[in-house]
Design brief:
seven-stranded antiparallel beta sheet, 11 strands, about 300 residues, alpha+beta, single chain, binds heme C, 2 domains, elongated
């Protein structure tokens, strides 16, 4: 009898343990990197951090540190107190419709302002960014004066893209970000958005050769056969025969080296599913790169 009772209480305990274990996950804290940062990137960076000069009101929303620095008004976040936090006041409309953020655009959805409110209420903490980030780098981009250089990113539906140009010593000369939202559907590619930095002219103190880094983050889950293609460099620069290298993103393995004309379609069929970059170099030393995903769908 005693024995049976003990068994029951142990089972009960196990049951309670399960209940308690599930409580924290139901009221899980809002994650800055997974939930708040994408809202800011896609709706606010355009005027608050897309490049070092775009800091309307003295505010950059680009990183958690930037938010902590505040704006011309002072701090924009009062941890634990959304209604006293300008960040929340301006997106919720509490500061008046005329200055509701994003300025001049459709307001955030109720779900988005709630996410920001809860995050501030929870203490506005930073957390490790575990969202997928795709990066491609071009070791050498030649900026020929006065030819404008064009960087293009073709991305499935929604993402935030950032281009950075650095010199050989790693000095950042240029940084520009942009949200990709509009979907288009050109034949054969699937649903994509496009982001282009147009007419980038070489600064007077820039060297002729630069490294270009493209970062793509907060990409919405792609439709099954969509391809993420990020290109950098100017296609018209490619002259003569190109040397092409295909590198698997996982493990950074070079899976193919060839000479000829780049054809993504061919490689999308040949490769095992996964992410790859394709680098090309022509016989004048111009380089280009795209990031793409080889999928199972043909
Ligand atoms: C189209 C440009 C634009 C967009 C997009 C935009 N803002 Fe603003 N924002 C402004 C301007 C302009 C000001 C006012 C600057 C001033 O009056 O000094 C401002 C001011 C602010 C301020 C007050 C800072 C201060 O000291 O004046 C906050 C907070 C703010 N924005 C947050 C946001 C958030 C969050 C988003 C995205 C949901 C956003 N903004 C999107 C242009 C924009």
């Amino acid at each position: 009898m005693r024995h049976a009772l003990r068994r029951i209480s142990i089972e009960l305990l196990a049951f309670f343990a399960c209940v308690f274990a599930s409580v924290p996950s139901a009221a899980q804290a809002v994650s800055f990197s997974r939930e708040v940062a994408p809202i800011l990137a896609l709706n606010c960076h355009a005027c608050h951090g897309a490049n070092p000069e775009s800091v309307a009101g003295g505010l950059s929303t680009r990183t958690w540190r930037d938010l902590k620095k505040g704006s011309n008004l002072g701090r924009v976040i009062v941890p634990g107190n959304p209604s006293r936090s300008p960040l929340y006041q301006f997106v919720s409309g509490a500061r008046g419709e005329a200055t509701q953020m994003p300025l001049g655009g459709p307001p955030l959805t109720l779900e988005q302002t709630e996410t920001i409110r809860k995050w501030i209420l929870d203490g506005a903490a930073e957390d490790a960014d575990t969202s997928p980030i795709y990066r491609i780098g071009l070791p050498s981009v030649r900026l020929e004066r006065p030819t404008p250089v064009r960087f293009a990113a073709r991305i499935p539906v929604t993402a935030y893209v950032e281009l950075e140009l650095v010199d050989s010593r790693g000095r950042s000369l240029y940084r520009e970000g942009g949200a990709v939202k509009k979907a288009r559907e050109p034949a054969g590619i699937g649903v994509i958005g496009e982001w282009i930095v147009w007419n980038l002219r070489r600064g007077s103190d820039w060297p002729e050769h630069l490294r270009a880094l493209l970062t793509v983050r907060y990409a919405a889950p792609e439709p099954e056969n969509a391809v993420l293609v990020v290109g950098a460099g100017e296609p018209q620069f490619y002259e003569g025969e190109s040397e092409i290298q295909i590198v698997a993103m996982s493990g950074n393995r070079t899976v193919a080296k060839l000479r000829g004309t780049p054809s993504l379609d061919h490689w999308k069929r040949e490769l095992t599913p996964g992410w790859y970059t394709m680098h090309s170099k022509d016989n004048r030393g111009n380089e280009g790169a795209v990031l793409f995903r080889a999928g199972t769908s043909r």
